[in-house]
Amino acid sequence: MEERENSVYAEITNTDSGLLIGFKGETLKALQHLMRLIIFSKLGEEAPNVVIDVEGYRKDEEERLRSYIVKVAEIVKETGKQEELSPATSYKRMLIHTYVQDVPGVVSESIGEGAERRIVIKPE
């Protein structure tokens, strides 16, 4: 377990990682959500963000997301046309905003409500 920027990262190593990850990471997302609820019930507003990874699955997923977002941001910079991304969880949106900041000449903005909340990447 590791603490970073008000977040707690827990890495689970298991020989049957597929069972914990589930189809497209759904079981892992559910496990993480349950852990967040438990911690929030104990600590309230002081609760840190909880990130659970199994055998590096989430880390690999984040690296794929970073690569994709950097490519999209470069296209936005070259064409001058904004790109609207698919709806994403709050955690993924936070990552996307961070990745976009690494590309000069573009900015990101969250739009929409609830499950339809997504990011638009725009030329600066």
Walk me through the structure.
The N and C termini lie far apart (38 Å). The protein contains four helices and six strands, in the order ββααβαβαββ. 14% of the residues are buried. It folds into two domains: 2-55, K homology (KH) domain (GMP Synthetase, Chain A, domain 3, 2-Layer Sandwich), CATH 3.30.300; 60-123, Ribosomal Protein S8, Chain: A, domain 1. α3 crosses α4 (90-101). It is of the alpha+beta class and 124 residues long. The chain has helices at residues 17-21, 26-43, 57-79, 90-101; strands at 2-4, 7-12, 49-54, 83-84, 106-111, 118-123.
Produce a short descriptive summary.
The protein has 124 residues and is of the alpha+beta class. It has four helices and six strands; from the N terminus they run ββααβαβαββ. The chain folds into two domains: 2-55, K homology (KH) domain (GMP Synthetase, Chain A, domain 3, 2-Layer Sandwich); 60-123, R3H-like domain (Ribosomal Protein S8, Chain: A, domain 1).
